[in-house]
Design goal:
With 85 residues, the chain is mainly beta. The protein is built from 1 helix and 6 strands. Strands 1-5-6 form a 3-stranded antiparallel β-sheet. Strands 2-3-4 form a 3-stranded antiparallel β-sheet. Strand 3 and strand 4 form a beta hairpin.
Length: 85
């Protein structure tokens, strides 16, 4: 279907911006202790779990470091092998 202007002539196409509505992924590398302090993970029984995905990240301490990818907002997954959007 072609859009017509007021005189019935085909109107030129208007450019449109494509959007996906998804925010770009963000990555955070820190100790499990710091991830909990920043609100990206939580603890249960001395273990750390990523918020959103509930992935087990290991013991709650300052000796274990992981990278977490956030996508969508509030949902974190482990991304130790590389963080890409």
């Amino acid at each position: 279907m072609t859009a017509l202007d007021g005189s019935g002539t085909p109107a030129p196409p208007r450019p449109r911006a494509a959007t996906t509505g998804a925010a770009p992924a963000r990555c955070f590398t820190a100790t499990d202790y710091a991830q909990v302090a920043a609100g990206r993970a939580h603890t249960t029984g001395g273990l750390v779990y990523a918020n959103g995905s509930d992935r087990d990240m290991g013991l709650y301490n300052v000796f274990v470091t992981h990278t977490r990818r956030e996508s969508p907002p509030g949902h974190f997954v482990i991304a130790d092998t590389g963080c890409t959007a």
